[in-house]
Design a protein that fits this description.
Layout: E1 6-8, E2 15-17, H1 26-29, H2 37-46, H3 64-68, E3 73-74, E4 90-91, E5 94-97, E6 104-107, H4 109-118, H5 131-135, H6 142-151
Antiparallel strand pairs: 1-2, 3-4, 5-6
Amino acid sequence: MAHRGMGECPVCRYEVKLSQQQCFAEQHIAVSHGPSREQVFAGILTGGNPDWGSSRQYVHWACDTCIEKGRAILAHPKQQEFYRCWPYFAYFSVRFTCPRCEVEFEFDKRDQFNRFEVEHHWVQVWPRFCRACSSSKPLRTPLRYEAIQAMQPPATSSGEA
């Protein structure tokens, strides 16, 4: 159980004093449409903060040691696109299972940085499929195929008046 003002780093699982972590420095997290520093700390300690109304309960952060050792990358909330969810305070690799091929894949910390701070995708949108399935054509189910065919204009012969 975390003590007052302490939080467990999601990367290394060590308990650290939240107010002393560089990813929560006031000048670093001050975003006009984002949560206050106190709301972020409350979100970490409670698993989400109903007062701020974040749609994503989990606050993505890492301690200074993990950032210094390269296990995580310091994020820049001012460079991110987000609405009613927690911005990223640090990026670290996360593993998922692709629902299409059922292969486990990694959403790498560098890919997250690129996706959210360089390409400016909304932070609440994570990749759902592995790279192989994302780059392949979508599966055409019979129902989807019928719907596409129904949207096509009917064929006409050139001799009609």
